[in-house]
Amino acid sequence: QITEALLKERDKQAKWNGIPLLLQKLYEHSHPNSDFSQCQSILKEISPLLSMEAMAYVTEDRKAAQESTFPNTYTFDLFGGVDLLVEILMRPTLITQKKKQKISDDLIKDCLSILYNTCICTEGVTRRLAERNDFVLFLFTLMTNKKTFLQTATLIEDILGVKKEMIQLDDIPNLASLVSSFDQQQLASFCRILAVTISELDTGSDDKHTLLAKNAQQKKNLDPSRAEINQATLLNIPGFIERLCKLATRKVSETTGTSSFLQELEEWYTWLDNALVLDALMRVANEEAEQSSTESSDESGLANTSTRTQLPQSMKIMHEIMYKLEVLYVLCVLLMGRQRNQVHKMIAEFKLIPGLNNLFDKLIWRKHSASALVLHGHNQNCDCSPDITLKIQFLRLLQSFSDHHENKYLLLNSQELNELSAISHKANIPEVDAVVNTDRSLVCDGKRGLLTRLLQVMKKEPAESSFRFWQARAVESFLRGTTSYADQHILYCIVDSECKSRDVLQSYFDLLGELMKFNIDAFKRFNKYINTDEKFQIFLNQINSSLVDSNMLIRCITLSLDRFENQSDAKVAEVLSECRLLSYMSQMSMRMSFLFRLINIIHVQTLTQENVSCLNTSLVILMLARRKEKLPFYLRTLQQMEYTEKYPGFILNNFHSLLRFWQQHYLNKDKDSTCLENSSCISFTYWKETVSILLSADRTSPCAIVSYIDEAYMDIDRDFSEE
């Protein structure tokens, strides 16, 4: 509505660079019956003004960039440019006539590029677009067109990143045929977008949320979450998982030929998000050019041609790494979701594990070359380089794959499975059913299985490496459950105490616990390694420094000691008498000290996924006492310890509340109690009975907690909610 004259007059002074006038022209040429022929030339004038700003934003330090203003993109949005482009893009969907308007691919590309550049530079634009559900779903339909796929995918990813409500994949028109129209490269890019739609929004701090709050949340939301519905939608797309497994396991040499690859790079060049990758590409080119210029002039001609042929290869590897990252992430989320068993079956059938095993040395754990491609402004060892992210994603996948699932034996090869059987025979122990039932046609091939390869790199990993945590988690996950004695033979990793990181330390304790549980040879070996009082003291200090981190190891030692004491075997008796660790734990005073502290460091209001194990470990100690009919003695001792601390009732009242919460938490029909059974080899029924006996209201019962709290100090009737 503003006159052209006014816009012209104001333009220079306001530094609008003619954008409002161009928008007015664009508006006139894009009315419902126009053929859009003029629009493209107008957009070609606007585009460079915006892309220069966006380029500056991406290459500059982002923080500095945010502080500076971006006048062109701001002006473009201020005068309604964003809404106008959305209208132009969506125009064909509004027309009901038989003769549908066709917008050219180039026009679509230009509209998307300009929208993306404005989103990058101007606050609030992405959020505004995200609120328009019709537009977001419409963008997915543009992905069927190969020519505009890259631009569309990048814009969708940006929009979904800020969208408050997760989209429902079911709402995307013809999702199954859309996915089947993608080639493998497009499918990998699509996985980037899917990642946002299948992950629970607050997974980042999952361990830190109190269980009370989580339980209350679960009661409110009995229906599956949007993320869970989206996971189910994906699993129902025919062939989807099979294609992901193929993508995850294909070799770099199987990717498409160089020509289309370079053509795609040119598209990337116009497409800003990937300027970083090109940045890296240019740096490699320069390095190689410098190397060749130092050689004699005769040879440099040859060197230059080799640079040309080598470049795409090094770039291809990076490309492949970035693809695999997205695919492994999606597989990992699906493996941890509600349809876990179905996904497991499919992943095994499509040979994901043997495929990853074959890629292990060449791609996943490859040695860095001198010119390893690194993203702009990062070094190759920083945690966000794709090489490192791929390794961590791979380890997370292994962890979820082998966690409490029989398919974990697919991580071995046939020879290693035979060794497991041989060890079982030699030790006179029946073979684990899962080993016998493992389908040999689906296991790893080659000289070594995936688990063995993982152990080899783990032993070489520097002490402070960020991989140590994930490696230990993946191995511990394989050992978890009703571990067979033979599994533990495979693992000869010694945990060293030079570790400073709490997370890594915790994963070491957990791994050590799984390695040693019920394994008399492991205790013997432990004693050989920790062979002086000084070393043993250091080890105890590590355990005592944080019981939240070390309680799984305490649980393992307690359970093992109980089993060994009930065996009449000369070798076991010898280790029992010699092993420092078992002797230490067999002292009643030590067990009571651990029990007292484990109950004291947790309260119903502060229970999280991370520290609830302390409650379960204290229960294990008391269940073993109940088996020996010593439960009253333990409760009386706790009562005496309270009196010594001059604070009667404070431990037992707290324990009473914790056990009431335990019932509420673990007797919920959705809760999986098999983990508790498998890790302790104590039936869940016995867990439940023990808790009921402890919580009995009968003050004359010698096994009820209330019998040991004086009336005056009784404080057990309070109800807890997450306030």
Describe the structure.
The protein has 38 helices and no strands. The protein is mostly helical and 723 residues long. Among the domains are: 4-172 and 182-201, Leucine-rich Repeat Variant, CATH 1.25.10; 239-252 and 313-367 and 384-465, no CATH class. α3 packs parallel to α7. Keywords: Receptor. This is Short transient receptor potential channel 4-associated protein. InterPro entries: TRPC4AP (IPR022162). Residues 288-308 are annotated as: Disordered.
Labels describing this entry:
723 residues, 0% strand, elongated, single chain, 38 helices, mainly alpha, Leucine-rich Repeat Variant
Q: What is the number of E strands? A: 0
Structural class: mainly alpha
Based on Cα principal axes, name the global outline.
elongated
Radius of gyration (CA) equals 31 Å
What is the number of helices?
Answer: 38
- Return the CATH class of the domain at 4-172 and 182-201: Mainly Alpha
Mean pLDDT, all residues:
80
Q: What is the percentage of strand-forming residues?
A: under 5%
Low-confidence parts: 257-285, 294-311, 369-383, 487-497
Which range best describes the helical content: under 10%, 10-25%, 25-40%, 40-55%, 55-70% or over 70%? 55-70%
Instruction: Indicate the CATH architecture of the domain at 4-172 and 182-201.
Output: Alpha Horseshoe
Kindly report how far apart the N and C termini lie. 56 Å
User: And the CATH topology of the domain at 4-172 and 182-201?
Assistant: Leucine-rich Repeat Variant
Main beta sheet, described?
none
